[in-house]
Amino acid sequence: MVEKPLSLQVYDRPQFAERFGSTGGFAPDRKEQMLRVTADLLLALAPKKAVLLELGAGTGHFTEKIVSAGHFSRIYVTDGASAMLEIARQRLPNEHGLLHFDIIDFTTQWAKRFANNRFDAVASTLALHHAENKRQLFSQVFSVLEPQGVFVLGDHMDGSTIMGQRLIRRERALERLRGEESINETLIQEVMEFDEQRQEAEGDRCESVVRYQTYLDSCGFEAVECLWQDYWQAVFVAQKPAS
Fold first, then answer.
1. Angle at CA 23, nearest 5°, toward 17 and 28?
2. In angstroms, rounded to a whole number, what is the distance separating the alpha carbons of residues 1 and 185?
3. 144 phi and psi, to 5 degrees?
4. Rounded to whole angstroms, how far apart are CA atoms 217 and 227?
5. Which CATH architecture has domain 6-160+205-239?
6. Has this prediction a pTM greater than 0.70?
7. 36: which residues sit within 8 A by CB, 6+ positions away?
8. CA gap 91, 102 in Å, rounded
9. How many other C-beta atoms lie within 10 A of the C-beta of residue 135?
10. Which stretches of 115-221 are DSSP H helices?
11. 236: helix, coil or strand?
C-alpha cells in the first residue's frame, strides 16, 4: 500500500481540519488578500458559464468566494484530504448541483480520471506547494484544459536566492510575533527555526517564483505571469494555447 504524502497525513486529521477551517491557518489577513487577488483574476480570465476544476480546495474558503460570484456553470471541488473536503461540503450551498465534490490527491497521476472531461479553467490556492514534482503536476493541469483554457494559481513561495529565502523566513517570523511587545533578533531567529520545522512537519515543499514560471513554460503554457506577490505568497496566471 502506497503511503499518503505527509501533507495529507496532517490535513486529513479531523481535529486539524476543524481547527484550520475555523482559524484560517497562518496569517489569515494576508491570506485573504491573496485569495481576493486570485478570485479577481480567475473571474476576469474565465468565460461566463465556464466549467472549473479546483485542486486542493481544502475547507472551501476560496470556493465560497467564486460560488458567490455566480460565474461558473459547474465547479469540481477536489482535495486529497477527506476531512477537509467534508468541511467544504458542509459549509457550501450546492444549489442546482453547481458543485461536484471529489477526493483527488494532486500529487498522483490524477488527470487520467478526467480522460473524458476538459475544463475551461483550473484554479488552486495555497495547496500545490505540497507537491514534490510540480512540473508533473502542471503538465497534468495543462492536459485537462480546453484550448485557451486558463490556470490561475495562488501559492506559497520560497526565495530564489539565499538572501531572498532568509528575508521570507524573517517576515514569516515577524508575522507570528505580531502583537508581541518585546521583539529582538534572538527571538526572531528562534521563531524562524520553529516556523521552518513546522513547515517541514506539514509537508511544505515551497519553491521560488522563478522555478514556478520555468515549470509552467516547459509544460506548454503561454502568457505565464506572476501578477502579485507578498513575500511567501504569489499569484500566477497561465493559458493553454489555442492549438
1. 120
2. 46
3. -95, -5
4. 16
5. 3-Layer(aba) Sandwich (3.40)
6. yes
7. 65
8. 15
9. 15
10. 134-144, 162-176, 185-201, 209-218
11. strand
Distance CA 22, CA 59 (A): 9
Q: Are 242 and 148 in contact (CB under 8 A)?
A: yes
Q: Quickly tell me which residue has 508533473 as its cell.
A: 136
123: β partners:
54, 152
**Angle at the Cα of 75 (from 123 to 126), degrees rounded to 5?**
30
Kindly compute the dihedral angle of the four CA atoms of residues 214, 219, 222, 224, in this order, to the nearest 10 degrees: -40
For the chain, give every domain's residue range: 6-160+205-239, 162-196
Q: Using CA atoms, how far apart are residues 14 and 17, in angstroms rounded to an integer?
A: 5
Q: Which residues contact 79 (CB under 8 A, 6 or more apart)?
A: 56, 57, 58, 85, 88, 103, 104, 127
Helices and strands in the chain: count of H runs, count of E runs: 9, 7
pLDDT by position in tens, the chain (length 243): 456 788 888 888 888 888 877 777 889 999 999 999 999 999 999 999 999 999 999 999 999 999 999 999 999 999 999 999 999 999 998 878 999 999 999 999 999 999 999 999 999 999 999 999 999 999 999 999 999 999 999 999 999 999 999 999 999 999 999 989 899 999 999 999 999 999 999 999 999 999 999 999 999 999 999 999 999 999 999 999 998
For 52, list phi and psi in degrees, rounded to 5. -120, 140
For 90-144, list the strands marked E by DSSP: 99-103, 119-125
